[in-house]
Amino acid sequence: MNGPDILSAAYDDDPYSHYETMRNDFPVYRHEPTGMYVISRHADVARALKDPPFTNECYAWQAEPVMGGRTITQMDGLEHASYRRLLGAPLRGPDFRRRVVPGIEQASAELIEKFQDRGDVELMSEFATWLPINIMSTLIGLPEADRPRFQRWYLALIAHMSNLANDPDVAAAGVAVRAEMTAYLRPLLQDRRARPGGDILSALCRAEFEGARLTDAQIQVHLATLMTAGGDTTVSAISNTIKNLLLHPEHLRATMADRSLIDRMHAESLRLNPPVHLILRYAAEEVRLDGGVIPAGSTVGCVLGAANRDPARFSDPDVFAPYRDELDPGREFTPAGSLVAFGQGRHFCLGAGMARTTVNIAVNQLLDALPDLRLADTAELRETGMFTRRLKKLELCFTPKAHPTVTV
C-alpha cells in the first residue's frame, strides 16, 4: 500500500483530506513517481528544517536552472550570513519603517480605490495578486510600467520550482524567463552602477563579497529569489486571512473593534491554510525518524500543511481558533514560533517581518474602506497548488463608498 500521490488531481483539489492519513499511516514514505521521501508530522518536519543532516542541495535542480546560479537558500556559514544581511537590510529595522511602510500603505490604498465605489471585488486578481508585486517592484527599482512583466516572471519561476511532474513546457518557460530577465536587467544594472539610488538594485550593485563586487549574474539570482519568495506567499496570506475572518463573524467583529488582533488572525490563518504546503530538503546522510528511515542522498518532501495541522502539536487542528494556547502571535513571525509556515532554523524566511507588516496594513485598510465586507453568494473558495497554494478566486461584496452630492 502506498501513501497519497501528491501529484494527483484529487490531492491538488483537497490535500487537507489526505493529511491525517499521511501522519498516521504513512509518516515517512517513498513517493514512487518522484522518488522522494515524504514526511508530514510536525516534529519530523521541524527537524528537517533545522537539523544539519538535511540540506538545501535539492535547489541545485529545483531553482538554479531558472535563477541562474546558487541562491541564498543553498548557502551556509559566512557566505549565507553575508548575503542574508545584504538582502534583509531593506526588509527590517528603522529604515524599513521610514521608507518601506509608507510605500506599502500607498500601494494598498491605490488598489482599494479602484474598486471601493463598485460594491464587489474579486480580491485575488484585483488586490491580493498585485499588492506584493507593486511593493516589491518599487523596492527593487523596476519601472511601474513593467509590473505585468514582473508578475509573469515570478509566476513562471514558481511554476518551474514546483514542477515535480517534469512538464517540459513548464521547464522551458522557466528557462526562457531566465534569459529574458538577463537581457532586461543588463541596461538597468549599467544605469544603477552609474547613477545609484535608494533601491535594492542599487544596493546590490554596490555590494561586495570577499572584496569583489557582485556580477550581473549574481545580482539576477538574488532578485529572482526576492521575487519568488515575496510573491505568491503574501498573496495567499492576505486572501486567507480575509477569508477566515469572513467565515467566522465573531472574529471579524472582534478584529473590527481591536485591530491589534490582526496578527493573531494572520498567524492562525498561516497555520490552517499556509501559503507554502510543501518544501524540499536533501538528506546528506541516513536519517532515522519515528516513522521510518530516509536513505542518504534522498530528496525529502516536507509537507508543511500537514505539520501545521498535526494534533500532536495543535489541539483541534482543523478548526480556525486564533486564541489557541499553542499560538503566540508575537513569536510566530520569528524563528522561535511553533508554526512551520515560514520554515525554521538558519533558513527561516527572510521576509517574514515584511509579510506580517504587509498583511496587517492590507487587512486594516480593507476593513476601514469596506466595513460590511462579506463573501459573495457565488464565492466557491477553491484552492490550487502543491508547493505554494492559493485560492483560485475570492469573490466579495460590500456597500459601495458613498460620495458627497454636490449641489449648485
TrEMBL record:
Taxonomic superkingdom: Bacteria
Keyword annotations: Heme, Iron, Metal-binding, Monooxygenase, Oxidoreductase
InterPro entries for this protein: Cyt_P450, Cyt_P450_B, Cyt_P450_CS, Cyt_P450_sf
Keyword Iron appears in the UniProt entry: yes
GO MF entry, a single one: heme binding
Keyword Cytoplasm: no
Signal peptide: none
A Pfam family reported for this protein in Swiss-Prot or TrEMBL: p450
PANTHER family per the UniProt record, alphabetical: P450, PUTATIVE (EUROFUNG)-RELATED (PTHR46696), PULCHERRIMINIC ACID SYNTHASE (PTHR46696:SF3)
Family to which this protein belongs: Belongs to the cytochrome P450 family.
Name of the featured protein: Cytochrome P450
Lineage: Bacteria, Bacillati, Actinomycetota, Actinomycetes, Streptosporangiales
